[in-house]
Specification:
123 residues, alpha+beta
């Protein structure tokens, strides 16, 4: 049940963040730098609506633990983060004899960040 999952969610989050710092400090720092340099400027532009969609092809996110770190960092800071990996086929070559098209797969990380937006006074 969902209620069972969220009972100790905060404690588990803190454990994971401590584990990242102890077990993978280099990767953890690279994820923090990516957030600060690439994501936060976009998020700041969306301060009023409180919702930012960011698409990234950042190779750092291919590392197995990086997405979990990214989500946990945002969660700890009061944001709601969701990541979806979209695979896009990009045609590269074609076999003229058979007509077969050969594609490479491009990974696009679709990152949705939600937070309480700014209240704007109206009228």
């Amino acid at each position: 049940m969902a209620s069972d999952i969220i009972i100790h969610a905060r404690q588990e989050l803190v454990k994971r963040l401590d584990g990242y710092e102890l077990n993978s400090p280099d990767l953890f720092q690279r994820v923090v730098n990516f957030i600060e340099k690439t994501m936060m400027p976009v998020i700041k532009l969306h301060a009023i609506p409180g919702h930012a969609n960011i698409n990234s092809e950042e190779p750092l996110l291919d590392e197995p633990a990086a997405l979990g770190m990214l989500i946990d960092i945002f969660s700890e800071r009061g944001y709601y983060a969701v990541v979806d990996v979209h695979h896009v086929e990009i045609p590269e070559t074609m076999d003229l004899a058979t007509g077969k098209i050969f594609c490479r797969i491009k990974k696009v990380y679709r990152i949705i960040i939600r937070f309480k937006g700014s209240e704007i006074r109206r009228g």
